[in-house]
Specification:
The complex is a heterodimer of chains A (about 280) and B (about 400).
Chain A: E1 6-7, H1 20-40, H2 48-68, H3 76-102, H4 105-110, H5 116-141, H6 155-178, H7 184-198, H8 210-216, H9 220-232, H10 240-244, H11 249-276
Chain B: E1 3-8, H1 15-20, E2 28-34, E3 46-51, H2 57-64, E4 76-77, H3 97-108, H4 112-125, H5 141-152, E5 159-163, H6 171-186, E6 190-194, H7 198-204, E7 207-212, E8 215-220, H8 222-243, E9 258-260, E10 265-274, E11 282-284, E12 289-297, E13 305-312, E14 317-322, E15 338-345, E16 353-362, E17 371-382
Parallel strand pairs in B: 3-6, 3-7, 5-6, 11-17
Antiparallel strand pairs in B: 1-2, 7-8, 9-17, 10-12, 12-15, 13-14, 13-16, 16-17
Helix pairs in contact in B: 3-4, 3-5
Classes of the chains: A mainly alpha (about 280), B alpha/beta (about 400).
């Protein structure tokens, strides 16, 4: 017996309050900024941890692959660093976003606002970290002369958008499923580990036999890492499109589909979040 | 509108379980939290939702706020709804008072500029001037409530949903709450209040809804709906009392009340009446009030004094008197004899507030007690005159010309 409960319009709503979209953007940014702050307050080194972590990973990889295995490319150091920073963003954003819904149970049970805001906010705070890290790399590496700025660098913002869209897609998918299946946390750790080694971050993609490259660059993460290197590092690795031709559209399509699928799943599951948490 | 919860018997929240038991239809038992609930709230109305714990009040509020989705039926909401149901929901203990205000303000839909503009006034209102940059985890619970309340009332939404906001905080805090409710009413906002405070519903609401087992069993004027609820609870307590063999002792007792005495004389009923002879828990200042106390003898007793004491909400005694001081001797009682003792005030001297009544029966030499009910009955006094404090001195003002006869320091 569906009946309605109508709460009629008040004269005070419409005009004097900012638009819904404006309010939601404002809330997203406020949440992102808070998360960013919270992550680094209370620790002595504060923000530097988020720089130190990729730097440590870089140093270890550098020691193993360049010093120990005598990987010849000296310029490879910067490529390695860029790859690590990009990949750190991907794991950061997806990892933090995964628990953004499940970890906000109190808020979700007792207050209403679009739940997607929580997911977007946590990816934005990871984005902030990556932006600062990239800026620092550019500032430090430019005098060393390993960076390149030219026409091809214009692709960098587009690649970062692709990276963000990909991370956001996974973020929506993971955060909604994680509410119901907590195993996902462990599964995703393994998946990212596999992706790390499958994405030519710690080795130049040239070691991949040419006939496998088409297959290799289907992986959007591998494609993004490689193309970001092409865009800003002096040691020119070619555009992935140069290796694989039209198949370069596959990672792009995958990225967009993952976002679409993530949003779809998130939308379907949103109504039951409050009941499960 | 109906809301059904499927409560899993054993939450199979691991993927392994799902994979190894692909066909197992998880065991659920259905729970109808709300069944065919339907009502309208006209714009600008203050509606109270009452009912016992588990009757579906909070579920209803969550559906109104879109936190839950109804299983069937629909809710039509016209206007901006305040997002918070309770006080301090989004507070983070690791953030300072100022940061929490900014974050929670954003959930309410206010931007940083607007919040910074209001910040000083808010902090002043919350009486937290010295703690603006203190982390919330170092706040006392009273300070947190004050801050939460201050943020919550910044909401500009036309429709406010509130779940038990009155349950936290002391008498002074509640007074502040009511001030704000009054302001909201003047501004024509719509308020849905879920509460156990029946006196507040009587006083402030335009209408009330009574829920029981997920169904609306009472709807309409607050005084009628709260009366129905009181009757429902009282009947049940009586039934319980009979079941546990304590029939006849159904004197209304607050759960916090304590009772002692040897039981030679028992207080078996208390009734507060207004000037029209109606039983009530709300009184107007300056209006008549009668306190009826019903006694029952359990042994032969010829030496009885009945006394009353009135307490402030925090327990402090404001005043007390008894039948001996009032030179009203009581007749002797034998087992089974009943007696009604009445204290009649033509003009209630108390001002706005919540008060509690203590009742006692004892011999003239108060070395033993027959029956004592400590702060057993709560009542509320309202007053529109603007007088402050607990009671009216009853004096009168006059102005005469001439030389002052008294010196001021």
């Amino acid at each position: 017996m569906p009946l309605t409960s109508a709460l009629r319009r008040s004269p005070r709503d419409a005009a004097d309050t900012p638009s819904t979209l404006r309010r939601h953007i404002n809330l997203t940014l406020e949440l992102a900024w808070t998360q960013f702050k919270l992550k680094y307050t209370g620790s002595v080194l504060g923000y530097f941890w988020s720089l130190l972590k990729p730097l440590m990973l870089f140093s270890i990889m550098y020691a193993i692959f360049v010093v120990l295995f005598k990987q010849r490319a000296n310029e490879f150091a910067l490529q390695l660093l860029v790859g690590v920073v990009v990949f750190t963003f991907f794991t950061d954003a997806t990892g933090v976003a995964m628990s953004s819904i499940a970890g906000a149970g109190h808020l979700i049970r007792k207050a209403y606002f679009p739940r997607g805001i929580l997911v977007v906010a946590s990816t934005i705070s990871a984005l902030l970290t990556m932006m600062i890290n990239l800026t620092l790399i550019i500032v430090v590496a430019t005098p060393l002369g390993h960076l390149h700025f030219g026409i091809r660098s214009l692709a960098l913002p587009l690649l970062l958008v692709e990276l963000y869209v990909l991370s956001l897609g996974f973020a929506f998918l993971l955060s909604s499923l994680f509410v119901f299946y907590r195993d996902l946390g462990h599964i995703w750790e393994i998946v990212t580990q596999v992706l790390f080694y499958a994405s030519a971050i710690v080795y130049p993609s040239t070691v991949v036999p040419a006939r496998f490259r088409g297959f290799f660059f289907i992986n959007p993460v591998a494609q993004i890492v490689e193309d970001v290197r092409h865009a800003i590092v002096i040691q020119v690795v070619p555009w992935t499109a140069g290796y694989v031709g039209l198949r370069a559209l596959i990672p792009l399509g995958l990225t967009v589909s993952i976002l679409g699928f993530g949003l779809l799943v998130f939308r379907r599951l949103t109504p039951v979040f409050a009941e499960y948490l | 509108m109906t809301k059904r919860f499927r409560i899993p018997q054993d939450r199979s929240a691991t993927l392994k379980y799902r994979l190894t038991h692909p066909r197992s239809t998880s065991k659920y038992h259905d729970f109808l939290a709300l069944e065919d609930v339907s009502f309208d709230v006209p714009h600008g109305e203050f509606i109270g939702i009452i009912g016992r714990n588990g009757s579906g009040k909070s579920t209803l509020l969550k559906i109104l706020s879109q936190i839950y989705v109804p299983t069937s039926g629909s809710v039509v909401v016209d206007g901006l709804v305040s997002p918070f149901l309770e006080l301090g929901v989004g507070f983070n203990p690791e953030l300072t008072a100022r940061e929490n205000v900014l974050l929670n303000g954003a959930v309410l839909g206010l931007n940083r500029r607007e919040l910074n503009r209001r910040m000083e006034a808010m902090i002043h209102f919350a009486e937290l001037e010295q703690f603006v940059n203190t982390k919330l985890k170092n706040f006392s619970s009273g300070m947190q409530v004050r801050l939460a309340f201050t943020v919550a009332i910044q909401a500009e939404a036309a429709i406010l949903l509130m779940d038990e906001v009155l349950a936290v905080g002391d008498a002074r805090f509640q007074a502040k709450c009511f001030e704000v409710f009054n302001r909201y009413k003047r501004e024509g906002r719509t308020i849905v209040l879920v509460t156990h405070d029946l006196a507040a519903v009587d006083l402030y609401c335009d209408s009330a809804v009574l829920l029981e087992h997920g169904k609306v069993i009472g709807e309409g004027l607050p005084s009628e709906v709260t009366a129905k609820y009181r009757r429902m609870v009282a009947d049940e307590q009586e039934a319980d009392a009979i079941a546990s063999g304590k029939a006849g002792h159904a004197a209304k007792q607050d759960s916090t009340a304590t009772r002692w005495g040897n039981g030679d004389v028992r207080i078996i009923g208390i009734r507060l009446e207004n000037g029209h002879g109606e039983e009530h828990t709300n009184f107007e200042a300056d209006e008549p009030m009668k306190i009826h106390i019903d006694l029952e003898g359990h042994r032969d007793v010829d030496d009885i004094v009945v006394g009353i004491g009135i307490h402030r909400a925090d327990g402090a005694v404001i005043g007390g008197t008894n039948t001996r001081i009032g030179r009203t001797p009581l007749p002797p009682l034998s087992p089974g004899d009943r007696l009604r003792v009445t204290y009649d005030m033509e003009r209630l001297p108390l001002l706005a507030g919540v008060y509690r009544l203590t009742l006692a029966a004892h011999p003239v030499i108060h070395s033993l007690t027959y029956d004592h009910l400590e702060q057993a009955v709560e009542f509320r006094v309202t007053d529109e005159s603007g007088r402050t404090g607990l009671f009216d001195f009853g004096g009168a003002w006059a102005v005469t010309s001439g030389q002052p006869t008294g010196a001021v320091a």
